[in-house]
Design goal:
This protein is 44% helix and 13% strand. It is α+β, with helices and mostly antiparallel strands. The radius of gyration is 22 Å and the shape is globular.
Length: 373
């Protein structure tokens, strides 16, 4: 029996574990994600109707506790569904919908201990891999802001940290210091300027966590992977529909989501650009996203959250840079590399972006004030 046939029949056995109606007509690989294995399923229904679903095998090398992860996803999506219905929206298109197993569970564990889940496919949508124009970035800001607003009253204590200290910048800084101190591969000498860059900003790393501890920033539901391609757009109208990829949804600060979007989307250079002259902070894109995000939030953020938005962008960029640099010093064991010094290049782009933010600090603050009116 061929391996391909075994995999095909094995997958179909897994599909039968989920509570879906109709006959399976087609199964095909879907998307270009690097974490989970994803398939698009087409089922035939009565009177010639068809319904499609997304089937995913969760990567347990990344997500060690699928039950905890899916508990978070279910709680958030069911809450969003109720909010969307109350607002007169379409809950089948404006949030992800988890399909239960025939036993009523949120995922299925097969004989090989792989964990599988299923979602209703959101029809008539597209996602964008990169910012082509400011309007796209603005609209993604609306989507993530609306996501924040709809969950603003969610009891955040019901969620668990699926990745502990994911955006705890002081802890990330401690891990960075450890990597520098150990210097297991003798690479620190080739990254002295970058190490000094991080160490000279030690006072910044605890700004947000201190404000959280002091009760000046609220703990909220955060997405934690606010890239443009995690927003679905309506294929016909071009308007944003919903936020997807909720694997890292957990308690955090709204500034984490805002900051990571700016870090990823408002840079003029690639994340691993070797020519740092090409790396700048695009102020037009910063303003576009900020305007969209605050529009989507609809007044649900506090004055302090709004005021600290530029710091969220700076700290998420600094944090990412120090993670790249620490991985470079430790032997590139976390982030995949495709050339020697790849993670060092990535760190340098993030630090250049931090410098750009610092050089335009007053302008960033002015843009935020302009956009909140």
């Amino acid at each position: 029996m061929s391996t391909e046939y075994q995999e095909q029949s094995g997958t179909e056995e897994i599909i039968r574990q989920f509570a879906v109606e109709g006959k399976l007509l087609e199964k095909q690989p879907y998307g270009n994600g690097h974490i989970n294995d994803t398939y698009l399923l087409t089922f035939g229904m009565e009177q010639g109707r068809k319904r499609r679903y997304i089937l995913q095998r969760m990567n347990q090398n990344v997500f060690h506790n699928p039950r905890l992860l899916m508990e978070n996803v279910v709680r958030v999506t069911e809450y969003l569904r109720d909010v969307i219905i109350a607002q007169g929206g379409d809950p089948d298109r404006e949030t992800l919908n988890v399909i239960r197993t025939v036993k009523g569970d949120s995922f299925y564990e097969d004989a090989d201990h792989d964990s599988w889940r299923m979602y209703l496919y959101v029809e008539g949508t597209l996602c964008l891999e990169k910012v082509e124009k400011a309007e796209d970035f603005h609209d993604s800001g609306v989507a993530f802001g609306k996501f924040q607003k709809m969950l603003s009253a969610f009891p955040v204590e019901q969620l668990q940290e699926t990745i502990p200290d994911f955006h705890n910048t002081p802890v990330r800084f401690q891990n960075f210091q450890k990597a520098v101190g150990e210097d297991r591969l003798g690479r620190a000498a080739g990254a002295e300027a970058e190490i000094r860059f991080v160490l000279s900003r030690e006072k910044d790393v605890s700004v947000l966590t201190d404000l959280l501890r002091e009760g000046k920033l609220p703990l909220r539901v955060t997405h934690n992977d606010t890239k443009l391609n995690n927003v679905l757009f309506d294929r016909e109208t071009g308007k944003v529909l919903c936020v997807i990829d909720l694997d890292t949804v957990m308690p955090g600060l709204s500034l984490y989501d805002f900051g990571d979007s700016i870090r990823f989307g408002a840079s003029t250079g690639a994340e691993d650009e070797q020519d740092l002259n090409k790396v700048r902070l695009d102020l037009e894109l910063f303003e576009a996203f900020t305007k969209g995000y605050l529009e989507g939030c609809g007044g649900s953020l506090t004055e302090e959250e709004v005021r600290m938005l530029p710091m969220g962008a700076k700290l998420m960029t600094l944090e990412c840079g120090m993670r790249f640099l620490a991985d470079h010093l430790e032997g590139d064991s976390y982030f995949k590399i495709h050339r020697e010094g790849h993670n060092l290049d990535r760190a340098r782009t993030q630090f250049k972006l931090v410098e750009e933010m610092e050089n335009h600090w007053e302008e960033l603050a002015a843009i935020v004030q302009k956009c909140k009116r």
